[in-house]
Amino acid sequence: MEAGARYPQAVQEAGGTSEVIIAPDPADDRAAAALAARIDGLVLSGGGDIHPRHYARPGSAEYEIALRGWLYPDDPRDEIELRLLHHYLPTQKPILAICRGFQVLNVALGGGLIADVPAREHNTRRDGASGYHAVQILPETRLSQALGCQTRLYVNSRHHQGVSRDLLAPGLRATAASEVGDALIEGFEPADDRYLLGVQWHPERLADFGEREQLASQALFRAFIDAALTSHSADARPR
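User: That's the sequence. What structure does it adopt?
Assistant: Structure tokens below.
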């Protein structure tokens, strides 16, 4: 299965109707606003690195490190997703942010990124297979509830950038952390009631997981769809 097809399949299997967004012109603010108003829930998917100009000062050491290791650049996608989030976030409709999407959402909310994560457990292997490591999930968080009340999972990992606690955007709290020893954040959610769940791993890649992780991944998508349906019902009520 093509990697991009796993996201709509996961949404559909969770009971949702998926639509792969045909991105508007990055500079078309009206199209981004219309798209944000139309959809009930947004999955921010994995992909290449975000250009460092969105989170680091040009000329800084962090900027130069990020630029040297910049993988699969896609400037138009950066602009489109950040513009869409500018309009979508105020609606307070649900977001599930995965891997690159986790990083994009943190940047959109005012956070930063580690330009290059040295631990190989986080990186995609040279043969294209995922890396693996364990994560601890804080109990009594929305993320833990969405994962079927799991507090520890063995997850796939396909990234070389990440988020540490000091780079977490204002208003977000860490809900999962790597056990690799580098204290990378692997999950976040807001401190308020908004449904914004971010995970650094890839829950849509079911073939990467054992049975327990597969069930938790499916539960995560079902929780997102339930939140989107609740949001849709609320929007449909007479004002």
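The longest strand covers residues 131-137.
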